[in-house]
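Chapter review: from sequence to fold.
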Amino acid sequence: MYTQNEMQWVSALSTRPSLESALKEVIEQADRLLEGPADLGLIFISSAFASEYSRLMPLLKELLPIPALIGCGAGGVIGANRGGLTEEVEGSPAISLSLARLPGVNVRTFHVEAEQMPDLDSPPDTWVDLLGVPAQEEPQFIILADPFSSKINDFLQGLDYAYPGAPKVGGLAGGDGTRTTALFCNYELYREGTVGVALSGNIVLETIVAQGCRPIGRPYRVTEGERNILLKIEEQTDDPGFGGTGRSPLEALRELVQTLSEEDQELAQHSLFVGVVSDEFKLVLEPGDFLVRNLLGVDPRVGAIAIGDRVRLGQRIQFHLRDARTSAEDLEMLLERYQRAIEDRGTSSAGALMFSCLGRGEGLYGEPNFDSRLFGQYLNNIPLSGFFCNGEIGPVGGNTFLHGYTSVFAICRQNS
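The token string follows.
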């Protein structure tokens, strides 16, 4: 039994092919589990229902009026079935609904179009005015965005500027392979921009960002670069003051690949990434210290490499590989670390959200429900819901980034 002042989250999932039947099932299931009225709802609906997105909000408003609601269309959804087991449903009709009772928590939803966003040179107050969320309340954010129109990187940079240190998690709405996007906020359907909720007061939102990569070789330092192009790098040594003209990154990469096992050489042909060190002051680097970015292409003429981020002189990088085993080990390491931390604190969590890349799931692991099942092994009895994204939002090294091939978890508990 939950007391009146205790936070409660519930998760429900339906795989019925009829929109009305699926919606009624998740509402009935969630209502049965939640002890008292909900303060917040999160709904994720698979792109198999894309032609019926416009019908969802009127139906939901009639069946489940709640004061704050956000959600989106998705390539797949995650939630708890009638038996209480978490399922990841990919490529077939499904609806996931989470309801939360949040005593002592301020809940503010928002929808922002790209044209409304302040210039990145604007003061922090302009972002605060846009969202209507005072910075002194120390809000924590759940963000859902359209992949095509939201200017999400600018949005995240602006939020980090206005609300430094505040957790920000979420994902880009999935689709059916077209530009048909659905974002939901307080029973309204939006096709563009960003929706979200700011939570402040008696709540703590903790994050796990599993990028699923392992470093290979040694770190390098950028000695020459332009925009997102690595032109020269030099191998890092124990001397923090080393310097030089550097060498071609493509040449360094070719030499590195020759030292790898046959299995890793094969993996490097299609699953090679670049990790950018997130904390320049940290000397001994671990897997979680990198912001992993795509390797976009090479120029054999000059030996340059293009990556999915801007590069800076003096920045440290390291090449990475990704496969199913590495992704599993990375997530397990992070979950184990988080489990130890909460045991040391003696705290318990009420609910969690999972934002996972469309490139993970069964396509990566060859079996369903892998990431969510691993989460449950370390953090059991925590209701989990979420969706498969076109990009995942989560913090690394104190700043918020848009990721790929990542699973981001947001774990909520009371502050007291």
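Two observations follow directly from the output. The chain has two domains: 8-211+327-414, 214-321. The mean pLDDT is 91.
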